[in-house]
UniProtKB/TrEMBL annotation:
This is DUF2892 family protein. Keywords: Membrane, Transmembrane, Transmembrane helix. The keyword Transmembrane applies. The chain crosses the membrane at residues 12-43.
Length: 63
């Protein structure tokens, strides 16, 4: 629960707004796949995770 309520940054708020906007557009256009995409973006905003949250996008330092 702390992860959901704490640390709301600008990028997290932007993801939330974009996710909600995509879902609204998908409902208006009756497009399920777009709605699923919007849901994924919305969930990422709510739980504060990204595609690179697990360190997969980290660049290794040269020795």
């Amino acid at each position: 629960m702390k992860r959901i309520l704490n640390r709301w940054s600008i990028s997290r708020i932007v993801r939330l707004v974009i996710g909600v906007s995509i879902i609204i557009l998908a409902i208006q256009m009756k497009m399920l796949m777009i709605g699923i995409l919007g849901s994924m973006v919305l969930i990422q905003a709510i739980i504060n995770s990204t595609c690179c949250d697990n360190g997969a996008c980290d660049v290794k330092e040269r020795k």
